[in-house]
Amino acid sequence: MEVPGPVQRRSFLNLLASLPAFAAPPAPHRIASVELFRLHGRRKVTPGADGQYQVQPLHIYPEYRPKPYREEPQPPREAPVSAIYLAIRTDRGSEGLYGPIDREAAILIETQLKNFVLGKDAMAVETVWDLLYRSNRHYRTSHPMMAISAIDNCLWDLRGRVLNAPVYRLLGGPTRDSVEAYGSALGYSVEPDAAGRRAVELKDQGFRHQKWFFAHGPGDGPEGVRRCADLVFALRLAVGQDVDLMFDAFMGWTLDFAIAWAKRAEPQNPRWIEEAFPPYQLDSFAALRKATSIPVASGEHLYSRWEVKRYLDAQAISVVQADPEWCGGVSELVKICHLAAAAGVQVIPHGHSLHAALHVVAAQSPAVCPLVEYLILKMRSYYHFEKRQLTPVRGRIELPDAPGFGIELDPAKIEKREPFRP
User: How many CB atoms lie within 10 A of CB 122?
Assistant: First the structure.
């Protein structure tokens, strides 16, 4: 073996000296404070309009079944509006902001998770999520997972602001310049004539995909099946064949009712039937999918990748509707997208909110995540306190280019800001 001589050693040392110095790893952004606050203001409303109820599981009991809905608009007036936001700050001055968040999530953050996350590295995506998930044996679902979702989403906003990039760029970059939205018609009358007229209006606004919500279920007997089928026929007649029609039963049906409806509705080619049963009835979802050609959708009440995997393994659904406000945040929804892609199933997140869902969808293949949900009536006021509100134009939402989620509060609309108190 040849031993390097003095000249060779000097050449090697000179080479090392010429190389650029490696930068020291950046210091962590330690979480220094977690603040929940409520904003108050006022907005205009039209009482008596757009208040159509949706069938619900309790409606099998006559005393809990609402009277038939009647549209009786009254003069517009001002009404109070409030929203809860979450702010997380670090010892290096960085800050994340997210909201609105549900009161149930805010209570758990304030009373249980707030102190736990103090001192954690806000940039350590997987570590913070995993620590939160493992910190309590009951945190795998429901309101605890909603609280984890709020923290995760807020930290993604913080990371975006630190790195001066929208969240969708942190997730791999955009797969399109804008994302198509389907219009959810929750609250609009489902009387066939009124619904048909509204569906044409939505089509003219650019909504090529529309979701309508049933008001009837098993408590209404065979008449309920007929009325739900009549809604499908009326909408298809109104908008023609070039509009996708989806339908939501909000856990209010039985398997027999769903199959009876599907037999009548199949010729009208619905894009899906959503959440016909409660999430614990996995076998009913699988049976319905086998019994009809109509795709079966669900997932807004599935709270993690593990719950979604059970549905995928059972081939129970064609569309996963996991909600990043409830299923574990951006971090978990990305994992759910990967599971669904491997199973050949689409992910179209439930639209309880838009910020997190839009950024995840924008960073996924359109083959996996083709759409976001836009709850038309809810979104009129949901982002009341924000300067930049996500609004479809001709059915598409342009991707924001501001850091994080681009959330900026509008002082002109805030009459009062106060700390959140459980």
Answer: 26
Q: pLDDT band for position 189 (50/70/90)?
A: very high
pLDDT digits (tens, 9 = 90+) for 140-156: 999 999 999 999 999 99
- Residues in the chain, total: 422
Could you give the CA distance from residue 422 to residue 419 in angstroms, rounded to a whole number?
Answer: 10
Left (φ > 0), alpha (ψ -120 to 50) or beta: where does 250 sit?
A: left
Which stretches within 135-175 are classed as H helix?
Answer: 142-163, 167-170
Closest CA to 278 of 256, 249, 309: 249
CB 132 within 8 A of CB 332: no
> In angstroms, rounded to a whole number, what is the distance separating the alpha carbons of residues 243 and 186?
17
Partner residues linked to 248 by β-bridges:
213, 274
347 in Cβ contact with 375 (< 8 Å): no
Find, among 268, 101, 246, the residue nearest to 184 by Cα.
246
Token reading at 22:
């490696």
Residues 209-217, mean pLDDT to the nearest whole number: 98
Nearest CA to 190 out of 201, 181, 198, 179 is that of 198
Alpha-carbon 26 to chain mean position: 33
Bridge partners, 41 (sequence order): 81
Structure tokens, 80: 């109070």
Q: How many CB atoms lie within 10 A of CB 116?
A: 17
**174/186 Cα distance (integer angstroms):** 29
* pLDDT for residue 174: 98
Of 105, 158, 153, 125, the C-alpha closest to 359 is 153
Tell me the C-alpha distance between 272 and 65, whole Å: 25
Quote the CA–CA distance of 93 and 319 in Å, as a whole number. 41
In this structure, the strands spanning 296-298 and 95-98 are unpaired
The structure tokens listed for 254 are 């039985």
Mean pLDDT of 60-87: 95
3-state DSSP of 64-109: HCCCCCCCCCCCCEEEEEEEEEEEEEECCCCEEEECCCCHHHHHHH
Helix axes 282-291, 305-313, angle to 10 degrees: 40
